[in-house]
TrEMBL record:
This is Sestrin 1. Belongs to the sestrin family. The keyword Protein biosynthesis does not apply. One of its GO terms (cellular component) is nucleus. The lineage of its organism: Eukaryota, Metazoa, Chordata, Craniata, Vertebrata. It catalyses: a hydroperoxide + L-cysteinyl-[protein] = S-hydroxy-L-cysteinyl-[protein] + an alcohol. InterPro entries: AhpD-like, Sestrin. GO terms for molecular function: L-leucine binding; oxidoreductase activity, acting on peroxide as acceptor. GO terms for biological process: cellular response to L-leucine; cellular response to leucine starvation; negative regulation of TORC1 signaling; positive regulation of macroautophagy; regulation of response to reactive oxygen species. It is found in: Cytoplasm. Its main location: cytoplasm. Keywords: Cytoplasm, Oxidoreductase.
Length: 558
């Protein structure tokens, strides 16, 4: 099947032409795809209700051909709904319609749009975007060959999305120390730490597309020793980054045959931290499987009635479109009071700040208290989280997960930002060894941290900087990272328990995030605001992991 995929890419079917901004190039590619589909359908008999036994025998012989065709049809379905170019959407829809008229079953989408947590009607529909957004979509489609669900959820915040796509494109596709297939394989390794089958599936396809060896996908032990050696760093970075030492770095750089160069290692570390954080976003926003991937479509007929191709354009997926009231049984008045109370606390804290400043000792104590308390914030294990395919074959030691600092008698010293910070140390180290990347990541951190529309739920003209800082510093506090000039007493005032549970789960054990957790914090806030929270979570997490890894590299170098 893998070979079939490769032949398809190398031989008769060229999907790449659809990414072109030139309409005639796209048209030629669509014609080529139509002919390829028609050739494939010629070998396949139409679906019959009660086929005779001899028909079934012949059917088995063409099973591989059907698999190949179905893979193409799933891709066409995705393009008909997710391609930013209207001509491609219309033509792929008409190809699917032709196939259905031949009596061959076509796929239909499963689920309700890009996110399991956010109603589809609240997410920007492809084809309804304005000119600025269209450019962003077209750029994304041109570089990735798809407009993925992550992009469609991030688009609530276009300024951030632009920066995110530019950084990711640079890491995966532009000149850099690592070969292309290594980059996607490292992405798979990182996403697999959190059993994030969504990202694993995407990068398995990308890995094969750039010529990666399918054997490596049978497990890390089938990959080159050089990548196997990265397994330990991947594991510690994902779950307990405070344990990284210069010895870990030395082992990678000094292994005789399979050693990494410093530049390659920086590239790998940035990729690992990028994909650990992106796994957090994927689970934190309930990202659905891509339409053309496993779990994103089905060839089964819906039980409701016969499914017609026109249902796709009408957004009728043949499934009951009910969405539970996000606030559950909480009354609007109650959650309205929640917003008012939070704004009142922010006002009071601002007044206290102006009046008195706590001593250094008091500030240090408050940090230690918050760090200790963050250990006892945990989610209930038995909740229903997203179903995941078993991707553990891509990494070893599945028992190794997030552990709190001083449980099991383990104590981790506090990491003082005053001694090693991203701005003064990490940024220049990355930029020196992997030019321009430090700059791109730095921009992305700043956009996420500074992003504001000066609104809170239904209120306008609100200064939210205090709240944004509390979220960012709480995440760093969970990783032992301390800012001397911050009063950690503010965190307990601003972040309630359900919000802390959500933050800790998304950042430390994202695979355990549930819709109930997403719904239960900030009940009156908009979905765009909850997505904004996720941008803060993933950037703060990425920076925390980078600080520990880069500090260890700096110690090794000095």
């Amino acid at each position: 099947r893998e070979r079939g995929r490769m032949e398809e890419r190398e031989g008769e079917v060229r999907w790449d032409g659809l990414c072109s901004r030139d309409a005639s190039t796209r048209d030629a590619a669509l014609e080529n795809i139509l002919q390829a589909v028609l050739r494939r359908t010629a070998h396949i008999s139409p679906v019959k209700e009660d086929p005779p036994p001899e028909f079934l025998e012949g059917r088995l012989a063409s099973a591989t051909a059907l698999d190949r065709l179905n893979e193409m049809l799933a891709r066409l379905l995705m393009l008909s709904m997710r391609c930013p170019f209207r001509d491609v959407r219309e033509k792929t829809l008409s190809i699917l319609s032709n196939v259905q008229e031949l009596g061959i079953r076509i796929p239909r989408p499963l689920g309700h749009g890009p996110s399991r947590f956010i109603p589809e009607k609240e997410i920007l529909q492809v084809g309804t975007e304005d000119a600025q957004m269209h450019t962003l979509f077209a750029d994304s489609f041109a570089t990735l060959g798809r407009l993925d669900n992550i992009t469609l959820v991030m688009v609530f915040h276009p300024q951030y999305l632009g920066s995110f796509l530019k950084t990711q494109h640079y890491l995966l596709q532009m000149d850099g120390p690592l070969p292309l297939h290594y980059r996607h394989y490292i992405g798979i390794m990182a996403a697999a730490r959190h059993q994030c089958s969504y990202l694993v599936n995407l990068h398995v396809n990308d890995f094969l597309h750039v010529g990666g060896d399918p054997k490596w996908l049978n497990g890390l032990e089938n990959a080159p020793h050089k990548l196997q050696n990265l397994g330990e760093l991947n594991k510690i970075l994902a779950h307990r980054p405070w344990l990284i030492t210069k010895e870990h770095i030395e082992q990678l750089l000094k292994t005789e045959e399979h050693s990494w160069s410093l530049a390659e290692l920086i590239h790998a570390v940035v990729l690992l931290t990028h994909y650990h954080s992106l796994a957090s976003f994927t689970f934190g926003c309930g990202i659905s499987p891509e339409i053309h991937c496993e779990g994103g479509h089905t060839f089964k007929l819906p039980s409701v009635s016969n499914y017609c191709i026109c249902d796709i354009t009408n957004g009728n997926h043949g499934v009951d479109e009910t969405h539970v009231n996000p606030a559950g049984s909480i009354s609007t008045t109650e959650s309205f009071c929640e917003v008012e109370a939070l704004m009142e606390k922010m006002k009071k804290l601002q007044e206290c700040r102006d009046e008195e400043e706590a001593s250094q000792e008091e500030m240090a104590t408050r940090f230690e208290i918050e760090k200790r308390e963050s250990m006892f914030v945990c989610c209930s294990e038995d909740e229903e989280s997203a179903p995941t395919r078993d991707v553990s074959r891509h990494f070893e030691d599945t028992s190794y997960g997030y552990k709190d600092f001083s449980r099991h008698g383990m104590h981790v010293p506090t990491f003082r930002v005053q001694d090693y910070s991203w701005e003064d140390h990490g940024y220049s180290l990355v930029n020196r060894l992997y030019p321009d990347v430090g700059q791109l990541i730095d921009e992305k951190f700043h956009i996420a941290y500074d992003l504001t529309y000066n609104t809170m739920a239904m209120h306008k003209d609100v200064d939210t900087s205090m709240l944004r800082r509390a979220i960012w510093n709480y995440i760093h506090c969970m990783f032992g990272i301390r800012y001397d000039d911050y009063d950690y007493g503010e965190i307990n005032q601003l972040l309630d328990r359900s919000f802390k549970v959500y933050i800790k789960t998304v950042v430390c054990t994202p695979e355990k995030t549930t819709k109930r957790m997403y719904d239960s914090f900030w009940r009156q806030f908009k979905h765009s605001e909850k997505v904004h929270v996720n941008l803060l979570l993933i950037e703060a997490r990425m920076q925390a992991e980078l600080l520990y890894a880069l500090r260890a590299i700096t110690h090794y170098m000095t």
